[in-house]
Write a structure and sequence with these properties.
Blueprint (H helix, E strand, L loop, with lengths): L6 H13 L2 H8 L3 H15 L4 E4 L2 E4 L1 H24 L6 E6 L2 H18 L3 E6 L15 E6 L7 E14 L1 H7 L6 E4 L10 H9 L10 E4 L2 H9 L4 E5 L4 H5 L4 E3 L5 E10 L7 H16 L5 E3 L1
Helix pairs in contact: 1-2, 1-3, 1-4, 2-3
Protein name: LysR family transcriptional regulator
InterPro entries: LysR-type_TF_proteobact-type (IPR058163), LysR_HTH_N (IPR000847), LysR_subst-bd (IPR005119), WH-like_DNA-bd_sf (IPR036388), WH_DNA-bd_sf (IPR036390)
Keywords: DNA-binding, Transcription, Transcription regulation
Length: 303
């Protein structure tokens, strides 16, 4: 049934497509770049369609190549996971999760003790680099937790929760703000416009004229720094109800005029289709779902 399939060429193609490079695929497979190029040309001849555009110093998938890569990567991942189930298990399974530094510090890490208690055999590594990871290209990432208004095509996703922005401060700053203009704490997001007009929108809803030329605004690049400034009593911060939840629960921060809220985006846990069946990934997604439900934000699964 499968005797006619050029398995070596298909495996070579998957590596070159995932890494967007014949040279890196050669390193990945421990062969020469010439051997990779030969296998790709052989596969293209067998299929009768080009799979890559050869550009100066790089290669790019054609539409046919994209279609083959998505199905082939998922199929090979299933085979690899099936083979892994037959091998003797090491003491600890590895799980790599990509997310933002703010979500890791303010929401995920404070709760990970519960995950480790339930799954002591799983070693979880956090990847909090600023660049967005392409899960189809980077096989080292098992799960990505993303924040966006958009959906994610070609990925298995679990919607964790939607967020709202409100104004928070240390209790003494909240009390003071009822009588005088407060110092405002803002966040400058390098890779998003979602926060840009948040303070103005909140002030417009609240009927406050805080955000004008006379306002004192302190800006930070990361949400965790802005929240620490608010906890230290340096002013009021416009913050996500998700990221501020631990500080509110501990009494370090409280909402100012909590009825005034500004809409945000949503958090989703994502992986390459098929990887959700891998035991460590399945355990982590199930735990995330429980945490989201416990936080009062019902998740919706989607593919």
């Amino acid at each position: 049934m499968f005797a006619h399939l050029p398995l070596t060429s298909l495996r070579t193609f998957e590596s070159a497509a995932r890494l967007s490079s014949f040279k890196e695929a050669a390193d990945d497979l421990s062969v020469t770049p010439t051997a990779v190029s030969h296998q790709i040309r052989s596969l293209e001849h067998w299929l009768g369609v080009p799979l890559f555009e050869r550009l100066p110093r790089q290669v790019r998938l054609t539409a046919a190549g994209e279609r083959l890569f998505h199905s082939l990567h998922s199929a090979l991942l299933d085979v690899a996971q099936s083979v892994d189930t037959l091998r003797p298990k090491p003491d600890n399974a590895q799980l790599t999760v990509s997310t933002t530094a703010a979500f890791a510090a303010l929401w995920l890490v404070p709760r990970l003790g519960h995950f480790y208690a339930q799954h002591p055999g799983i070693n979880l590594r956090l990847d909090t680099q600023c660049e967005v990871v392409d899960l189809q290209q980077d096989a080292s990432i098992d799960v990505a937790i993303r924040y966006s208004l958009d959906g994610y095509l070609n990925l298995h996703g679990l919607c964790l929760f939607d967020e709202r922005f409100a104004v928070y401060g240390a209790p003494q700053q909240v009390a003071l703000a009822r009588h005088e203009r407060p110092t405002l704490i803002s966040v400058h997001w390098r890779n998003s416009t979602l926060y840009a007009d948040g303070w103005q929108a909140w002030c417009a809803q609240a009927g406050e004229n805080w955000f004008d030329e006379q306002s004192l605004v302190r800006s930070y690049d990361e949400e965790q720094y802005a929240l620490q400034a608010a906890i230290a009593g340096q002013g009021l911060v416009l913050a996500s109800n998700i990221l501020v939840s631990q500080s509110v629960a501990s009494g370090l921060l409280q909402a100012y005029r909590p009825e005034i809220q500004v809409g945000g985006a949503g958090y989703s846990a994502l992986c390459v289709p098929g990887r959700e069946r891998h035991p460590p990934v399945r355990a982590f997604l199930h735990w995330l779902q429980h945490q989201a439900l416990h936080a009062g934000h019902p998740p919706l699964a989607r593919s």
